[in-house]
Amino acid sequence: MTLANGRPYLAIPGPSVIPDAVLQAMHRAAPNIYEGALPEMVHGMVPDLKYVAQTDGHVAIYICNGHGMWEAVLANTVAPGEKVLVPASGRFGHGWAETAEAMGIEVDLIDHDRHEAIDPERVRAALEADKAHEIKAVLAVHVDTSTSVRSDVAALRAVLDDLNHPALLMADCIASLGCDEFRMDAWGVDVMITASQKGLMTPPGLGFAFFNDRAAEVRRGMARVSGYWDWTKRAAPEMFYQFFNGTAPTHHLYGLRVALDMIREEGIEAVWQRHADLAGAIWAAVEHWGAEGPLTLNIPDRALRSHAVTSLRLGAPHGARLRAWTDEKMAVTLGIGLGMSEPDDPGGTGFFRFGHMGHVNGAMILGLLGTVEAGLSAMEIPHRKGGVTAAAEHLSGCFGA
Q1: For residues 322 and 375, is the Cβ–Cβ distance under 8 A?
Q2: Cα separations (Å) of 157 from 41, 167, 263?
Q3: What is the span of the domain harbouring residue 232?
Q4: Considering only CA atoms, which of 158, 88, 170, 90 is closest in space to residue 124?
Q5: pTM over the 0.90 mark
Q6: Which of 5, 115, 308, 383 places its Cα 20 to 30 Å from the Cα of 150?
């Protein structure tokens, strides 16, 4: 028997749920890519993208995913043979480091435990040791999608300023932008990257590089940057095609326009608060279930947990079993335990993740949690019953008296 009929719910940490309005905006004939409404629409998007990033700087749009954005911003700022510092708190920090190494860049890696956020004091020690200022950039993942940890990016700027170190501060906000609070200019971030498929509620395929004047000056000092990755004309195009170094990703742009309108209408502060409230409901349920069973949150400290994604441990092989049950029986797809293997569980079957980013509301989260509680009961996995009630009580408290 299955109850998986009807619309499926993709509760993974990206691609996120796509709003109907975004899908409807994309369902149209191909437009004129040379003049008229499309170029006008894209020029009008730029201020709204900067609003989401909380920056007055520059933005370049690419046709690629987040991995492409790692390469894009490095290509504009760090030459082969130069050095970057990467404090990694999960798989995606390591991934950015691996991209840098593949480009011939020397990497100084600070490997954190998967339960920890980036430690600013470990970064300080590495920068203090860099007497010749060989480190050209600090690459920090704001929210690592694998571990669900949220690091303090502003604290890294404070370290750089305190040491008067000239390295650029780069932030990967692919999982966090439009979900967790992020203020590019106020936090002193020089370069920030994100992609379309998470908080921006648009299908995968678009990447964004935000950068300030300081980073633009570094780009001007580069001996060469490939035509495709060069952000110069993308951020200040003389002709429309230069936004994309070729043909525009037309239908992604139509969807993104609607998604940005939705964020503007709700207000970025309200978007952040909604994600915080919904994340709190998930934590309440998991902490309740785990009081009498093996289920635990990967990040013990609430202050370090992302509001966009939650990584959990259930123990091998129950994470994979739960994912299969919710998908087959209830059409709810949970995220895999990415990069979370253990010595006795090399496949990471004891882990799974909730994605709660972008177009999500209270009813969706309660439905997700109800499905998980049903799965725990059906598979006779020990847990304290009543997690959904705990989540509901948390949400009821979000509205005040």
Answers
A1: yes
A2: 35, 10, 27
A3: 31-265
A4: 158
A5: yes
A6: 383
Domain membership flag for residue 282: yes
Assess whether 161 and 68 both reside in one domain: yes
Average pLDDT over residues 240-266: 98
pLDDT band at 341 (very low <50, low <70, confident <90, very high): confident
Cβ(103)–Cβ(74) under 8 Å?
Answer: yes
In 3-state terms, what secondary structure has residue 249? coil
Give the Cα separation of 393 and 255 in Å (integer). 35
126, part of any domain: yes
Shared domain for 68 and 117, answered yes or no, is yes
Does residue 1 fall inside a structural domain? Answer: no
Beta strand pairing call for 168-172 and 58-63: unpaired
Where among 213, 247, 265 does a domain terminate? 265
Last residue within a domain, chosen from 236, 265, 294: 265
382 - beta bridge partners?
none
Q: Which amino acid is at 29?
A: A
Indicate whether 186 and 274 sit together in one domain.
no
Q: Name residue, tokens 């708190």.
A: 89
Residue written as tokens 């994979």? 320
Q: Is 193:210 a contact under the CB 8 Å cutoff?
A: yes
Using left for φ > 0, alpha for ψ between -120 and 50, and beta otherwise, residue 219 falls in alpha
Quote the number of domains for the chain: 2
Give the 3-state secondary structure of residue 176: coil
Distance (Å, whole) CA 309 – CA 180? 10
- Same-domain check for residues 95 and 231: yes
24 lies in some domain:
no
For 94, 114, 207, 299, 333, the CA distances from 340, given in Å and listed in that order, are: 13, 8, 26, 13, 18
In this structure, what CATH number is given to the domain that contains residue 127?
3.40.640.10
